[in-house]
Amino acid sequence: MLFNSLDFLIFFPIVTLVYFVLPHRVRWVWLLIASYYFYMCWNPRYALLMATSTAITFLSGLLIHRSNQIPDAKRRAWMRRLWVALSFGSNLAILFFFKYWDFFWDNLEALFALGGVALHKPVFDVILPVGISFYTFQALSYTMDVYRGEIEAEPNFFRYALFVSFFPQLVAGPIERSKNLLLQVHERHTFDAQRARDGLLLMLWGLFQKMVVADRVAIVVDTVFDGYAAMPAWAVVLAVVLFAFQIYCDFGGYSNIAVGAAQVMGFRLMENFRQPYLSQSCGEFWHRWHISLSTWFRDYLYIPLGGNRKGTARKYLNNLITFTASGLWHGASWNYVVWGALNGVYQVLGSILRPARERLCAALHLPTRTLVWKAVRIALTFVLIDFAWLFFRAPSFSAALDILSHVSSGGAAVAEGFSLGLNGAELRVMLLSLLVLFAVDLCNSAGVRVRTYVLRLPVPVRWACYLAVLYVILIFGIYGPDFSESQFIYFQF
Questions:
Q1: 330 flagged as catalytic
Q2: Whole-prediction pTM value?
Q3: Active site residue: 24, 65, 290, 330, which one?
């Protein structure tokens, strides 16, 4: 069930209405049923896999809690580590089988072929379950939080199952922590009109990002990437630039709808995007982009590896490992691995070059606090991030290299007109929607919250704004029979 579908337009109001009508003691049961129904709309069998991951991590939490009662310190520590290892090992094994099995065997076959040995891959009819990477990481964070003593083990399996399967953020995040969302499962939520209004406004903005901006930009991006060999270089570069905004509005739109939907029901989800393309460095970008995943890798991989506590060289290595693992998390393909590693290289080079850059700026008396300087840094950061997005969007690593070669050679010599997939009017709508996106992000970055400003307007003007945005989505949004398969990009992860 897609957020931008008619089904969800019916599903969400019914779920919310019944939720607030029911007595508090059984509301969480209703949300659990609704969440599993929401997930089973893709494939009922997927729910069995999610339930398995839920059961493993739930039991690991109880076993870790029980191990804490062991008098002998060495045995207590050993048993705690054992349950954590089994929880991570079994869940990652499931993730590996469903997501990385073919990737592993394809590369193993290629490696053995170099030595003249032919391997035959075991064939399984495996379909990647929707959102498996998201709920697996969310469940694993619970195991680690219990192990670290940051949260008590949840004694009720079904309440814990709701934490793993909570439908607004189940399929594509934000990846919530147990110390935030699981605790809220026990809270009493009453209907609050102002909170619901704020949540609905955020959902409306998310739908604008997805249906008006992302899905329209996707037409240009897909048209160019599918036929880049016949495109001039500037068209390919334009498509790469536009993909940066497509994936931002697609994933950011999903996150805003998820956060807004949860807010209507009284749940607080973490912010997942914070105007990332206004970042002045690649390091800052990753504090603003997919925040729930970035902090997950920081807390559960980078810091356990040693973080920045074991010297500069080790810090750089940990950075590279973390970002490369993040790339592999996104997809079982070398182009994702390269994308992640490239972002890791950006972090390392940024740290290495920072002292020299600061000395150079001081020696040249460059006005580093001016808006012009900030704009230059934002532009340079965007170029680096967007270059990495090429590897993310390309269907394979070899295709990414082919596209780079095509662009560097000047592209195709197009004698006749060619299509970007949109007519003139559609292109103007796309550009205008991008300007609206930029203006809103710029205002929010400057501390001028657009939603807060709109809510202070007189009631007639305020409702005129609501209706105007809804009208724009209905008139200019991309939907209907020809676009019924317009899923969110991150569903594949």
A1: yes
A2: 0.89
A3: 330
